[in-house]
Amino acid sequence: MKTRSTFASEAASNKSRARHLLLVATAAALTLCSSSAFAGWARGGTAYTGRGEYQGAHVGSCGGGSCSHAGGVENPWGRVATNSGTVTRTSPGQFSNSGTAYGPNDRSVQHAGDTSCAGGSCTHDGSATGPNGKTATGSDTVTRTAPGQYSSTGSVTGPNGNTSTHSASTNCAGYTCNRSGTVNTANGGTVNHSGSATSVAPGVVVTSGTATTTSGSHSTTVVGGATVTSGTTVVTGSTTVVAAPVIVPPPPPPSSTVVIAPPPPPSTVVIAPPPPVKTVVVAPPPPPVKTVYIAPPPPPVKTVYVVPRRAIWIPGHYVGAVWIPAHWA
Fold first, then answer.
1. In this structure, are residues 149 and 251 in contact, taking their beta carbons and an 8 Å threshold?
2. What's the start-to-end Cα distance of the chain, in Å?
3. Could you read off the pLDDT of 220-269 as tens digits, one per residue?
4. Residue 280 domain-assigned?
5. Cα(200)–Cα(206) distance, rounded to whole angstroms?
6. What is the pTM (predicted TM-score) of this model?
7. Region (Disordered): which ranges (predicted)?
8. What angle do CA 200, 203, 208 make, to 5 degrees?
């Protein structure tokens, strides 16, 4: 039965072996590439996260229009993942790349692609083939929209034909770069992510970020952050340099390979009851106003005073040959 000290001893031994392998790979890469036209670099660093320290080293060299790189990362449990590859300039603004990545379980992924840059924009088309022989393809475009500002869009199609799309934007000013983006998964889910990276001292970068996954009516937010320290050694001519056993976080997978973690178990969502409906009583409209026509008053009555005259008795008489009897007049 293994004791705690045995486990600690094994872990220390594994770390020592991993670091030794990284040092050997660094020395070999730089020694093989040493020539009058050789220019190389070695970089290492440590990422401090909530899960522990990740250490890694990365070396590279360029010559004859081609650059090769190799590196590895060791997790807090002593397991190592490596990645190596080559990028070749085929013509002005045109590049091709290929390489292999090995995980801690020794499974490998072969990746290759082509990149074309012109007018402040670069487009990359690539593929990745897993250990089971299945292939995923991807396409991405990155455009410089203004000094320090970039936007990107792309898509990834898995071996089963399902396609996910993504878009993002980055804004850099001073010592800080901020980014935000959205991933639309093939199953209809959405991942909104944002974060920042700030250089607080030479070789020290502090990162933070959040990612919110939405699937149907459920959403989950993950908040993370890390402090990364690194150092870089540039080598020219035929000098051989052995990099210090320090680690950087594992490089991101090639743009043609996107691994989307399965959505977390649905969280319980409590929906508050709707507020009571307010009853609104609308008063009936007032009755229509009756129009009353008022006739103008009659003109004033003029009073006519008739002066009575006196009656005169006229006795009977002839008018010509006609007899007129007596009468009043």
1. no
2. 167
3. 777 777 777 766 555 444 333 333 333 334 444 444 444 444 555 555 55
4. no
5. 7
6. 0.57
7. 84-168
8. 50
Query: Dihedral of CA 144/57/138/196: which sign?
Result: negative
| Cβ atoms within 10 Å, residue 30 | 24
- Tell me: the pLDDT tens digits for 48-79? 888 889 999 989 999 999 999 999 999 999 89
Domain range for 36 is: 4-236
Tokens 């909530």 -> residue: 50
CATH number, position 82: 2.40.160
Question: Which two structure tokens, joined as six digits, stand for 160?
Answer: 């089963």
The DSSP string of 199-243 is EEETTEEEEEEEEEEEETTEEEEEEEEEEEEEEEEEEETT---PP
Instruction: Give domain status of residue 256, yes or no.
Output: no
Residue with tokens 């008795």: 313
- By C-alpha distance, which of 62, 68, 66, 19 is closest to 44? 19
* Residue 308 domain-assigned (yes or no): no
> How far is 151 from 161, CA to CA, in rounded Å?
26
Those residues whose C-beta lies under 8 Å from the C-beta of residue 97, and which sit 6 or more positions away, are 85, 86, 87, 88, 111, 112, 113, 114, 115, 126, 254
Give the 3-state secondary structure of residue 110.
strand
Structural domains of the chain, count: 1
100 domain residue, yes or no: yes
For 65, other C-beta atoms within 10 Å of its C-beta total: 11
Produce one character per residue of 239-252: b if its CB has 16 or more CB atoms within 10 Å, e if not.
eebebebbbbbbbe
Rounded Cα distance between 272 and 54, Å, is: 44
Q: Which two tokens stand for residue 70?
A: 């190799």
Distances (CA, A) of 104 to 60, 69, 94, 199: 22, 19, 33, 30
